[in-house]
């Protein structure tokens, strides 16, 4: 088990309202989903083969708020909680909203490209959250991530944590190309990779356009003891 549980925070800036709202919304939707799991996934999950034909395109968005189980939900929400607030605090809620949704769509596009004829519904916020992580890598590379690894808790710089994470996604994604998972399901590795790549590109734009920690501007890092 290798999870982030905290990070260096951005002081000041915009209150990360949407970051927390997305967490709450995902949890509420999942609790509702538990009552009609198959029906909601079938109705609102994104099916690559349908998207390619131009059908049910709205599911590209609705699928971002569905999850395959408690583990899927909790894992995604932990990553969203740790990494999203710094991005939103820096760029503002409106820009973060568009960035988050576009990141999810970029992840979907990558998944569809490698699963063109799949009729298996895709669900989860992983593509959008991966975009958040990609932007974080560029905008806050030296931010210290508090990591939980089995019985150990330690800190490491974001560039190493996120670099290791995307390397694992890449290896899993390339390995999945050798196995036909289009009809059997499994983790959408290429959604992670596509979302992350979009986030890196957006991160360079944000870093250029908006203040960065360490500059004589309104944002800087602080260490919150015990966070």
Task: Record the strand order, biggest sheet.
Answer: 1-3-4
Please report the total strand number as a whole number.
5
Helix-strand pattern, N to C? EEHHHHHHHEEHHE
Count up the domains.
Answer: 1
CATH class annotation: Mainly Alpha
Classify the fold: give the CATH topology.
Answer: Rhomboid-like fold
Q: Which spans have pLDDT < 50 for at least 5 consecutive residues?
A: 213-227
Strand % is 5-15%
Q: Looking at this structure, what is the CATH superfamily? A: Rhomboid-like
Architecture, CATH level 2?
Answer: Up-down Bundle
What overall form do the CA principal axes indicate?
Answer: globular
For the report, how would you describe the main beta sheet?
Answer: 3 strands, antiparallel
Structure, explained:
It is a single chain. This protein has helices spanning 17-33, 37-44, 48-52, 59-62, 70-91, 93-114, 126-139, 158-176, 189-209; strands at 2-7, 9-10, 144-149, 152-157, 221-222. The model is unreliable at 213-227 (pLDDT under 50). It is mainly α and 227 residues long.
Write a concise keyword list for the protein shown above.
globular, Rhomboid-like fold, 10% strand, 227 residues, three-stranded antiparallel sheet, single chain
Topology (elements, then pairings):
Elements: E1 2-7, E2 9-10, H1 17-33, H2 37-44, H3 48-52, H4 59-62, H5 70-91, H6 93-114, H7 126-139, E3 144-149, E4 152-157, H8 158-176, H9 189-209, E5 221-222
Antiparallel strand pairs: 1-3, 2-5, 3-4
Helix pairs in contact: 1-5, 5-6, 5-7, 6-7, 6-9, 7-8, 7-9, 8-9
């Amino acid at each position: 088990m290798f999870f982030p549980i905290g990070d260096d925070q951005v002081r000041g800036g915009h209150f990360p309202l949407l970051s927390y709202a997305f967490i709450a919304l995902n949890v509420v939707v999942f609790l509702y989903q538990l009552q009609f799991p198959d029906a909601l996934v079938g109705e609102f999950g994104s099916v690559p083969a349908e998207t390619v034909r131009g059908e049910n395109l709205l599911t590209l968005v609705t699928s971002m708020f569905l999850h395959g189980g408690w583990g899927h939900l909790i894992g995604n929400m932990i990553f969203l909680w740790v990494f999203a607030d710094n991005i939103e605090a820096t760029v503002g809620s409106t820009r973060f909203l568009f960035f988050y949704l576009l990141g999810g769509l970029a992840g979907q596009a990558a998944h569809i490209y490698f699963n063109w004829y799949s009729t298996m519904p895709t669900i989860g916020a992983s593509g959008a959250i991966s975009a958040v992580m990609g932007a974080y890598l560029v905008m806050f590379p030296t931010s210290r991530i508090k990591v939980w690894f089995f019985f150990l808790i330690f800190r490491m710089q974001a560039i190493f944590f996120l670099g290791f994470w995307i390397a694992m996604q890449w290896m899993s994604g390339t390995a999945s190309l050798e196995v036909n998972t289009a009809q059997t399901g499994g983790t959408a590795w290429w959604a992670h990779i596509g979302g992350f790549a979009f986030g890196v590109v957006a991160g360079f734009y944000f870093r250029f356009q908006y203040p960065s920690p360490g500059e004589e501007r309104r944002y800087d890092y602080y260490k919150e003891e015990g966070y």
